[in-house]
């Protein structure tokens, strides 16, 4: 399939290790894809769904022990332990190749090894990078064909890339959770994943390549790989401005990326366009601004909670060409269902484990009664999204006006604030945090620090990553402004005060106005906070000016409590936390104390 001897030798070596019966190259053609879908249906990997209601859609169930990313089994294998840092798990590369080599040995016997050539980013764009994933799983092949630009268009360029590609090897093996490993060798451009069949662990283009390996490459080559959505706001005059946003998992990135503006905005001619919902690659453009692309080609979204109110665009995207994983199978009409889709659970249904599901026993508070797994997913084609940006395939990407960080904080963070500089904004990103909710197991209200939402995804030392942010700031002549949002402030009874969803447009609008010096703000100890009248509340019912004032209040006491927690967190990151960030922390503490 290619004359690139580097690629051919590597495939040969991996085939000698895993001993498949045959090797099939994925060309992405309609015929091959259809044949693979049919084979997957025949062998039970997929169930074909109702072709009238959900054309070209399929249902897959993973093993019950294999339903999520496994951070404790994810390793960064650098020669020096210190280069992987304190936050990552580390294994010596040689030891890891030996250990996993034993698990991979003969693991594809009797099976087919699929060779998936894929590109993260539009083939030929300055941003794009090529990977090849070798896998024994048709499910992986069919998902990669949605999530990446894969097949012939990439095969066509392989001859000219030498060894400049990311080598990915995946085998399901026994799906043994005690021998499940997701290992990254950033110094060798290599990823090895074994004993899992779940998306985030096995679609190697996504978290493994586009975040962990790419963040490492970005530091080396002077760009950034971030866990960020990208959206464009089109103004009534036809101009579009773009922002990126990083929120920890389960804080509504996909919802914000596909936001539908409130009616008053729509009537005036505002539109929102989705460029990406999970990953952004960012480079300094010739014009001195920061430009972004979404390296992916599809969405691997969480199904539960997706509905007509929370995200109608995502729901519409899932209506064709979608692979659903671990959702409820509605047998009456051969469709799918999940908690939070609507109030009509199917009466004749199979749950995510493959058992008959009795909807009358479903209790919202008890996850074990759910029909769909809480982390069940849809893999959908980005181009099928009604609000996909016309710039989605633009090889140059889009220029970024603002970077938004966010978290889930009941009290501490106001609805929105703006940092005072790139350095201060980097600090704001580095202290990002979310509080655990009753929805997850464990204590409620515990703060988990998740810098730039990258805690599980930085492919090197976190302190070095903060330094890379500071260094990038010095190299962007016209950098985006950096903001922080919190949609999750609660009142004393624990109810959310801000309506969220489409209304978040009002906050994004203030952010973009600030970028052009068109909106006012007040300087507080934490940064610039809007005055209540600066947030456009036209047509927003049930939210008084007093409520907005409360949403924007800087709670000095809870910020001061946070300072100690941040100091402790920085200690866990280790001795590579840049001095500039410690200065920022000391400065914040001093300003808060002065304001008390
Ligand atoms: C994801 C995640 O799947 O962040 O996108 O976990
Ligand atoms: Mn994510």
Kindly describe this structure.
By secondary structure, this protein is α+β, with helices and mostly antiparallel strands. Helix content is 30%, strand content 22%. The chain contains 17 helices and 31 strands. The strands form six sheets. Strands 1, 4, 5, 6, 7, 8, 9, 10 and 11 form a nine-stranded mixed sheet that branches. It is globular. The N and C termini lie far apart (69 Å). The mean pLDDT is 96. Bound molecules: oxalic acid (OXD) and manganese (II) ion.
Topology of this structure?
Blueprint: H1 5-18, E1 22-25, H2 30-42, E2 47-48, E3 58-60, E4 74-76, H3 81-84, E5 89-90, H4 93-104, E6 112-120, E7 129-135, H5 138-147, E8 149-150, H6 152-158, E9 166-171, E10 181-185, E11 190-194, H7 199-202, H8 205-221, E12 224-226, E13 229-234, E14 240-246, H9 253-257, H10 263-268, E15 271-276, E16 280-284, E17 290-293, E18 298-302, H11 312-317, E19 323-325, E20 328-330, E21 335-337, E22 349-350, E23 356-357, E24 377-381, E25 398-406, E26 416-418, H12 422-430, E27 433-435, E28 447-449, H13 462-475, E29 481-485, H14 504-515, E30 522-524, E31 527-529, H15 545-552, H16 556-573, H17 579-595
Parallel strand pairs: 1-6, 3-19, 4-5, 4-10, 7-9, 9-11, 14-25, 25-29
Antiparallel strand pairs: 2-3, 6-7, 6-8, 10-11, 12-16, 13-14, 13-15, 16-17, 17-25, 18-24, 19-24, 20-21, 20-22, 22-23, 26-29, 27-28, 30-31
Oxalic acid is lined by residues 69, 200, 249, 278, 300.
Structure, briefly:
The chain has 596 residues and is an alpha+beta fold. 30% of the residues lie in helices and 22% in strands.
């Amino acid at each position: 399939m290619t004359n690139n001897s580097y690629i051919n030798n590597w495939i040969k070596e991996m085939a000698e290790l895993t001993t498949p019966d045959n090797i099939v190259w994925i060309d992405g053609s309609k015929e091959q894809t259809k044949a693979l879908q049919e084979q997957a249906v025949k062998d039970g990997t997929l169930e074909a769904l109702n072709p009238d209601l959900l054309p070209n859609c399929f249902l897959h169930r993973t093993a019950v022990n294999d339903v999520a990313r496994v951070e404790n089994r994810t390793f960064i294998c650098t020669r020096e332990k210190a280069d992987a840092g304190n936050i990552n798990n580390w294994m010596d590369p040689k030891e890891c190749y030996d250990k996993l080599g034993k698990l991979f040995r003969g693991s594809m016997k009797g099976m087919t090894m699929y060779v998936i050539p894929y590109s993260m980013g539009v083939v030929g764009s300055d941003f794009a990078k090529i990977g090849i994933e070798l896998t024994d799983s048709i499910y992986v092949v069919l998902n990669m064909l949605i999530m990446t630009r894969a097949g012939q268009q990439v095969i066509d360029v392989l001859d000219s890339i030498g060894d400049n590609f990311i080598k990915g090897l995946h085998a399901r093996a026994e799906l043994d959770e005690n021998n499940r490993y997701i290992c990254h060798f950033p110094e060798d451009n290599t990823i090895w994943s074994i004993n899992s069949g779940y998306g985030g662990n096995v679609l190697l283009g996504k978290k493994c390549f586009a975040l962990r390996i790419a963040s490492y490459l970005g530091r080396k080559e002077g760009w950034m790989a971030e866990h960020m959505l990208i959206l464009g706001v089109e103004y009534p005059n036809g101009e579009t401005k773009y922002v990126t946003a990083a929120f920890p998992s389960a804080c509504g990135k996909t919802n914000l990326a596909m936001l539908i503006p409130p009616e008053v905005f729509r009537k005036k001619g505002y539109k929102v366009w989705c460029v990406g919902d999970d990953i952004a690659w960012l480079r300094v453009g010739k014009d001195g601004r920061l430009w972004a692309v979404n390296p992916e080609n599809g969405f691997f979204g969480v199904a539960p909670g997706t509905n007509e109110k929370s995200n109608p665009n995502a729901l519409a995207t899932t209506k064709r060409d979608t692979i659903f994983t671990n959702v409820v199978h509605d047998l009456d009409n051969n469709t799918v269902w999940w908690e939070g889709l609507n109030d009509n659970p199917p009466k004749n249904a199979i749950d995510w484990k493959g058992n008959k599901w009795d909807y009358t026993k479903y209790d919202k508070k008890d996850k074990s009664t759910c029909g769909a797994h809480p982390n069940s997913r849809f893999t959908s084609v980005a181009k099928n999204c009604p609000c996909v940006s016309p710039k989605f395939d633009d090889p140059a990407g889009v220029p970024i006006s603002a970077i938004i960080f966010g978290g889930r904080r009941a009290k501490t963070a106001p609805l929105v604030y703006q940092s005072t500089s790139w350095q201060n904004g980097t600090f704001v990103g580095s202290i990002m945090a979310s509080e655990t909710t009753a929805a997850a197991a464990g204590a409620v209200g515990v703060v988990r620090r998740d810098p730039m939402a990258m805690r599980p995804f930085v492919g090197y030392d976190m302190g070095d990553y903060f330094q890379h942010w500071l260094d990038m700031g010095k190299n962007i002549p016209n950098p985006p402004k950096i903001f922080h949002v919190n949609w999750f402030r609660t009142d004393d009874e624990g109810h959310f005060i801000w309506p969220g969803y489409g209304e978040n447009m009002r906050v994004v609008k203030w952010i973009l106005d600030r970028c052009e010096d068109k909106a006012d703000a007040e300087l507080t100890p934490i940064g610039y906070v809007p005055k209540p009248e600066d947030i456009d509340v036209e047509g927003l019912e049930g939210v008084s000016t007093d409520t907005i004032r409360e949403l924007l209040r800087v709670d000095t006491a809870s910020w001061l409590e946070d300072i100690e927690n941040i100091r402790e967190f920085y200690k866990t990151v280790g001795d590579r936390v840049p001095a500039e960030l410690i200065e920022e922390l000391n400065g914040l503490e001093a300003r808060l104390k002065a304001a008390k």
